[in-house]
From TrEMBL:
Enzymatic reactions: a 5,6-dihydrouridine in tRNA + NADP(+) = a uridine in tRNA + NADPH + H(+); a 5,6-dihydrouridine in tRNA + NAD(+) = a uridine in tRNA + NADH + H(+)
Name of the coding gene: dusC_1
Protein name: tRNA-dihydrouridine synthase
Gene3D superfamilies according to UniProt: Aldolase class I (3.20.20.70), Putative flavin oxidoreducatase, domain 2 (1.10.1200.80)
The keyword Coiled coil is assigned to this record: no
PANTHER family in the cross-refs: TRNA-DIHYDROURIDINE(47) SYNTHASE [NAD(P)(+)]-LIKE (PTHR45846)
Binding site for FMN: 48-50, 102, 171, 201, 256-257
Length: 358
């Protein structure tokens, strides 16, 4: 019989689970995590994000201690038809290895063909996207729409695992909507088909990124399967990271929006998990210097026009919360020249430093 949510028995059981998970966290910190045959330096990962986790940003996160980085999601159909842009998304820099390449699609044969191509790549892990909520993806039956078709999930994972020489992982959501919560079912299918790990975002597709992530579903998945489980959702700082580990017992955590304009989140989380000390936020000077370096890396990687266009959003994330950020962001979104942007940022920094001395 299920205990009432507010019963003494419920609270006692919950307390036991949290204490056990705290012990497990201490044990995990002392042991290396492996996904298949890939050994990782720690258990704090960067989530795949379209338009965000390109090579320059992944390198910055890796420099801050990120244990595993993921590429932006790559269209399996695009690679199948030899689209140059899609193929370029799979490239990894030496500084970010081992890295995971995430692919999306709904046709088992095409997904398998792409996984076979990636055997010759620098990818350490192949991840299958079953969590993207974007309408342009789900309308084709891809991303989180796959969670509505468990039989297709089985065929895709089996096909990819069969040909891949890399560990295969799957990223899923809580379910399609509140009427179809099936993360545990999908995770079990993935494990049975040979997946090496499952990442769970604690929201349904219907929620997109609104509301609160349900960490309880991550705990349920962890209890249901034996392969590593990566928890994802609502980790914006070190305290939340520790709570996610403790409340779910997950093997690793994945940071998404909390890392936007904030690659330092990885070093701050690792410090907190290892020492209990809460490191301070980066100074305005550190942020501006990182912005300029990030912009230069993007321009080198994608050319000045594209690099500057894409950097605008990153700059807005970096300076959020600083004085005069909204006005500065508005100006930058109308600029197309690198030197002009650098001059504006340096003036912005000078104003921040003057105010700190007031």
């Amino acid at each position: 019989m299920l205990q009432p949510y507010n019963s003494v028995e419920w609270f006692f059981t919950r307390f036991q689970n949290i204490c056990y998970n705290k012990y497990c966290l201490l044990f995990k910190e002392a042991h290396v995590l492996k996904i298949g045959n890939v050994e990782l330096s720690n258990r704090v990962f960067l989530a795949p994000m379209a338009g965000v986790t390109d090579m320059p940003f992944r390198v910055l996160c890796k420099e801050q201690g990120c244990g595993l980085v993921y590429t932006e999601m790559v269209s399996a159909k695009g690679m199948h038809y030899q689209d140059e842009k899609s193929t370029k998304l799979t490239l990894l820099d030496e500084r970010e290895k081992p890295g995971a390449v995430q692919i999306f699609g709904s046709e088992p044969d095409i997904m398998a063909g792409v996984a076979e191509k990636l055997n010759a790549s620098d990818a350490g892990i192949i991840d299958i996207n079953m969590g993207c909520p974007a309408p342009k993806i789900t309308k084709n039956g891809e991303g989180s729409a796959l969670m509505k078709r468990p039989e297709l999930v089985e065929r895709i994972v089996k096909a990819v695992v069969r040909v891949s020489q890399k560990p295969v992982t799957v990223k899923i959501r809580k379910g399609w909507d509140e009427c179809s919560i099936n993360a545990v079912e999908i995770a079990k299918i993935a494990e049975a088909c040979g997946a090496s790990a499952v990442a769970v975002h604690g929201r349904t597709r219907e929620q997109y990124y609104s509301g609160k992530a349900d960490w309880n579903i991550i705990r349920q998945v962890k209890q249901a399967i034996s392969i590593p489980v990566v928890g994802n959702g609502d980790v914006t700082g070190p305290r939340e990271a520790k709570r996610l580990f403790e409340e779910t017992g997950c093997d690793a955590i994945m940071i998404g929006r909390g890392a936007q304009g904030n690659p330092w989140i990885f070093s701050r989380i690792l410090t907190y998990l290892q020492t209990g000390e809460l490191a301070g936020e980066p100074t305005a000077e550190v942020k501006i210097n990182t912005i300029i370096r990030h912009m230069n890396m993007l321009i080198e990687h994608k050319g000045e026009r594209t690099g500057i266009l894409e950097m605008r959003s990153h700059i807005a994330w970096y300076i959020k919360g600083l004085r005069d950020a909204a006005h500065t962001k508005q100006k930058i979104f109308n600029m197309n020249d690198k030197e002009e942007i650098i001059n504006l940022l340096q003036g912005f920094l000078l104003r921040q430093q003057c105010r700190e001395q007031e």
